[in-house]
Specification:
Number of strands: 6
Shape: elongated
Strand content: 25-35%
Number of helices: 4
Helix content: 25-40%
Length: about 150
Amino acid sequence: MRWISLLSPLRSPSANLYRKKVLLRYREILVCGSKYKDLTTAPISIHELQDLPFVGLAEGTSTREMYMNYFMENRVSFHPDIEAATTDQVLPMIVHNLGIGFYPEPLAREVINDGKIFALQLKEPLPQREVCLVTNSSTAMSTAVKKAIEFIV
């Protein structure tokens, strides 16, 4: 599966100029490699994760910020032992037992079915994620952008 990011500079902070269309809703799940498979036998609390090596995304990403907030809401500090620059770098580290980590459930499903990683059940529910298309109604779109949006939507 390929992911395409399209960023257009925004000029005005006025919220009513922007339209948001949700393209995809999904959840991330906590996964581990074979070394930590024994953790999959019963639901685990995020409070129990502090003693385990954790693989996460680097600071400055919206995913990292979301997990910082999630852990803070549950009164747990969040400091990954290994930081990846992108989500696709997280999975190989988990497969090779460098730690446990969160991964988008739709992308993890095949790897779980192959027996390379295992899903852990968290007692505290994870927030739902969204992939959105945001457009600025006050700015004309080029033909290329219109075609890209047609392709995406």
